[in-house]
């Protein structure tokens, strides 16, 4: 039993099929052999029955005189003829000098002849002659005529089955076994593949088996199972990846909010401390001159404006961090947003002596938030006026793409040192901290630009121009 269990499925299936085939063919061979042997025995019995019938006719014609029987002329090399009465006594036998004294009623062929009229025995030993014979008996008028031929080698060959048929059946058996081996080996191979797949699935391994199963019922079932498991694995991997990304995004939001809170606290300390100092000085010195009092009040006002600008920028950043669900988008004209920005900076540009050149189509329709896009251009112009020392600002709007609009914003100012360019979109990052605070900057302007562009499905890049100036290029998805 242990050795049987060591065999794989295909080998056990082949052995079962082999045993079944051998049993089936063996039963058929035995059945056919006996059937053919019985047919030949019946054929030989029919020939002998003709002899018996003729002998009975001669006995009837000659008044029962057995001495005048002519049995030598029958087509047999050696023919034994016996006449037996209904009491089982042998009254004539052409091969014996002395007739037996015992009854022959117990002989099979005699009993059948008495009951059915004819009978035969395939092979039986004769006590009187000590030979084996094929007996055929027939009942007549008061007697039974029995003819027999010796069961010699020639008779045995005559009654034997056709060995050509046996060889043919052996060939059929071999062919069936070969076909069975091929089929069971193929079936076993597929079942082994399915078993290996089940083991991998139980372990939770990734399935990379791309070899298809055969196009049959088992193959179709196996292919469906493999594809279903592969889709399940992919879905689980996608869920795990999305879950990991969501966790990372949530942690990143928490980190950014903490960083934003710390930076806000740091940024608020300077203007608040300056306002407090100015107000304390005014309160503690009521006899202060009007000119000095106005100077301190002016400082308080400028720091208050700086606080308001910081709170406005923080509000925008917080709104973008909360996600796109809180930002309303609608159909807007980007050129109208740019025109509104230019109107806001018209007086400031004239005072600073900065000329703004703009190249744009008449309209550029897109889906977006006008307030966020307005803050993009506000912050870019504000940075150019406050820090670059430029005399010209160029704005180019390219609407040739079906899906995106590309905006180029450049100036001819001093540019930015190359080592600062990778960091200028970070929150509260300043190239020149002292100069930025003096100009009222919050360090959030370019961070707002980057996030606002990202919320409109685009990206922003920056590089120094040759020979002078800085250029921002960003894209915005139209829908």
UniProtKB/TrEMBL annotation:
Q: Entry's Gene3D superfamilies?
A: 1.10.287.130, 6.10.340.10, Histidine kinase-like ATPase, C-terminal domain
Q: Where are the transmembrane segments?
A: 13-31, 164-183
Query: Where is this chain primarily localised?
Result: membrane
Q: Where in the cell is it found?
A: Membrane
Catalytic activity reported:
ATP + protein L-histidine = ADP + protein N-phospho-L-histidine
Residue ranges annotated for the HAMP domain, each copy included? 185-237
Enzyme Commission number(s) = 2.7.13.3
Keyword Kinase among record annotations:
yes
A single GO molecular-function term is: kinase activity
- Superkingdom to which the source organism belongs: Bacteria
Record-linked InterPro entries: BphY/WalK/GraS-like, HAMP_dom, HATPase_C_sf, HATPase_dom, His_kinase_dom, HisK_dim/P_dom, HisK_dim/P_sf, Sig_transdc_His_kin-like_C
**What are the protein's UniProt keywords?**
Kinase, Membrane, Phosphoprotein, Transferase, Transmembrane, Transmembrane helix, Two-component regulatory system
Segments forming domain Histidine kinase: 263-479
The name on file for this protein is histidine kinase
Q: Which organism is it from?
A: Heminiphilus faecis
